[in-house]
Amino acid sequence: MNKQPNPNSQLDDDLWTEEERAEPAASQMDIAYAELFNSPDGDKVLRHLKSITLDQPCWVPGSDPSYGFHREGQNSIIRQIENRIRRVKDG
């Protein structure tokens, strides 16, 4: 049976080549982030940043919709830091 890619899913593995699915190699900046946040104080700061961003709601009913966009921007910074650290750890 020839499996067809799901046209409604941009994440379907059949749509991407092996190279496109591969994670990029860690950069020098990724290494700098990993070293910074690998210390006890760096870990404490990252946990604090998560607690005031990722662990909080992005938007609550009744608030201005632009608040959700602003909050997602904050969250994306923390996700970028975590992704940089992960690239270094995963080698």
The total strand number stands at 0
This entry's quaternary arrangement is: single chain
Shape: flat
Taking the alpha carbons of the first and last residues, their distance comes to 37 Å
Give the overall pLDDT as a whole number.
84
Order of helices and strands: HHHH
Low-confidence stretches: none
Explain what the structure shows.
This protein has 91 residues and is an all-alpha fold. The protein has a domain at 40-91. It has helices at residues 18-21, 28-37, 40-52, 65-90. The model has no long low-confidence stretch (mean pLDDT 84).
What are its keywords?
4 helices; 0% strand; mainly alpha; 91 residues; 58% helix
TL;DR?
The chain is mainly α. The chain is 58% helix and 0% strand. The longest helix is centred in the C-terminal third of the chain and has 26 residues, at 65-90.
Please give the structural blueprint.
Layout: H1 18-21, H2 28-37, H3 40-52, H4 65-90
Helix pairs in contact: 2-4
